[in-house]
Amino acid sequence: GALLVSERIDREELCGTLSPCSLSFEIVVENPLELYSGAVEIQDINDNDPVFPSSQARLEISESVAAGARFPLESAQDPDVGVNSLQTYQLSANPHFALDVQTRVDGSKYAELVLEKELDREEQRELHLVLTALDGGSPPRSAHVQIHIDVVDANDNAPVFNQSAYKASVRENTPSGTLVARISAYDLDDGPNGDIVYSFSSHTPAKVRELFALDSATGELRVKGQLDYEETKLYEIYLQAKDKGAVPGMAHCKVLVEVVDVNDNAPEVTVTSVYSPVPEDAAPGTVVALLSVTDLDSHDNGLILVQVSDVNDNAPMSSQDSYDVYVLENNVPGIPILNVSATDPDLGRNAHLSYTLLQGDPTVGHIFSINRENGTLYLLTSLDHEYQVEFSMMVQVQDSGSPPLATNVSVSVFVTDLNDNAPTVLYPHPNTTATYTDVVAPGTPAGHMITKVVAVDADAGYNAWISYTLLQATDPSLFSVGLHSGEIFTARQLREDEAPQHTLVILLKDHGEPVLSASATVSISVAEMVKEVFTDLTDMAPANDPRRHVTFYLILAVILVSAAFFITMLSVGIFKCYKWKQSKELFNSSRSTLYRTPGPFHHIDAVRGGFTPPNFYHQVYLTTDSRQSDLLCKKPFTSSPLGSRQSTMRNGEPGLYHQIVGTASRLPTPAE
Q: What is the pTM of this model?
C-alpha cells in the first residue's frame, strides 16, 4: 500500500500558479470491498528567482508634476507560490521618490513610484534608481531592474479618467470581439496635447494582454482570447490614457472583469465494476459497481445545492450611534461632509440598505441631503456661523426586507466661525450726515474721559475681539485711546491756546486671520462757554444742509421760551415773597423761614447721546409755606461749557436743560 514517486515532480509545471497543487487518485480495497479517494499535495520550494520583463526601465516625468503623483512599474514574475512567491519590492534611497507596494485580488504584488518631492529640471535633469523584487523564501531570492528617469517639461494638463475604477462582468466562452467595458478620459489641452491614446499599463501581465484587446482610440476593451472561469475568476486590468504631447501626460485606471461561470462542463461519472458478470443468484444488496460524480463547474452549475432561505431578522447596525461633524462657514455648496456607515448580516434584499434624513426640522431638508445608496451626507448650501451655529438631524438606515427593519443615527453638524465680519461702529454712527461733537473745557486734566467709541463684531471668539488705536489726530499728543475699551482720554492737560476743533480717526481691528478693520471719526470741541459750543457747532454745519435755518429758529425759540419762563417764575417768586411777608405780619408769627438747599443732581453718563458736564447745575430755593414748589431764586454754582452733540443742535433739540430740584415743608394756614 505504499505510494511512491515514479519521476521528478515540478510543481510549477503541473499546476502553474494554482495553490494548493494536488494530484487525485482512487484506491480499491478488496475483502471487504471498499473504494477510497486520495490526493497528494505538491508543496512548493523556493527554486525560482523573481524575473523582471527587462533589465532596464525608462520613465519621462515632467517637472510640473505635483507631489503625490504615482507611476506604475513593471512587475516581476515568480512561478513559486505562497511565501516563496514574490512578496515585496525595494527602491534605492533617493530624495524624490518613495515606493508603494500594492496587492492584486489574486494576491500578486506590484509596485508604484510615488513622487514625494517635486522635481526641478534645472537642478537635476535625470535620476537613476534601482528597483529590487524579493520573494519570501529563506534565504530570499531577488531580481533587479535599473530605472532611468528623465525630468522633462510636460503639458499643462494630463488626461483624467471619468472614474478611477471600472467594473464589468463577462460570461466565460464569450466569443472574441465581445465588448467588455468602455473607458473614457478627457484632456483640457488643445491639439495633439489633448488627443488621448489608450493602452495597457506597463505592469499588465502578458496573460491579460492575450485575453483582452484595447482600442487605443475609443477606449473599448474587448474579449480577444478564450476565457475560462475554471482557470481564472477575476481579472484586474490596469489601463492608461496618454496624450500626444511632446512630453505626454498620463492617467491610470483599472478595470475589474468578473468571469461568470457557464455550465459548460458535463458531470463525469466514473464506474468501477467489481463483479462482472454478476451471478444470477446474487443476493439483494450485493455491490455491483461503485460510482463517483464530479463537475468542474462552480456554484449551481457544479453542485446539488440545499439552500437556506434568509429571514429578515437582523436590523441594520451602524458603526456609531451618533456623529459630530465640524464644518467651516462659507463652505462651497454640494460638498460631502460625512459618510454614515452601517451593515446588515442578512442576505440579498434583506441586507440592501437605504439611508434617509428624517424630516424633524423642515430647514434641515433644504440644507442637507443624503445619498440613499451609500449614506454620504452632502451640504447643499453655504453655512453662516453668525446665522446658526448647530444643526441636529436623524438619519434612518433601513433594509429592504419585508417587513423592513431600521436603525436611527443622530448627526450633529457644528458650524465653525471664520473671520468674515469686520467690526461695526455703533457710535459715532458712520452712516449719518450729522457729525457727533464732544466738548471738553480748557484746563481739563490728563486722564479725563471725553467719549467712547462703541463697536461690535458679529464673529465669535478671537475673531470678535476688537482693539482700538489712534490712527490720525489734529494733535496726536493731546488724546489717547483705550486699547480694548475704545475710551478716549486726554493725554495731557488742555491749555487755553488749544485749537478749538479736533478730529480723531480711530482704527478698529479684530484679532481674526486675516485681520479685518474699520474706522471711526470723532470730533472734539475745546470750548469755555456753552455759547462757544453753539457757535462752533453752527459753524461746522454743512453749507448745503437744508435744515440749518430751521435749527437756528428752533434754538432761538427755546431761548425765548426759557427766558419767558424765567421771568414768569421770578415774578411769581416776588409775588409769593410779598404775600408771605403780609401773612407773617398779619399773624405775628415768630416762625422763621426755612430754606432747604438741594444738592447737585446726579450726572448722567450720556457719552453716546450728548451730556451735560457734572459741574453745571443750578441751586433752587423754595418757600416753606408753599403748597407747590414755587421758585424763589436760582444760581449756578460754577460755570462750565456744556457738551452736546452737533446733531442734537441741528435737530432742534434743546442743548441744555434746567433741572429744578427741591423740597418744601408746609406751614399751617391761618385757619389752622
A: 0.39
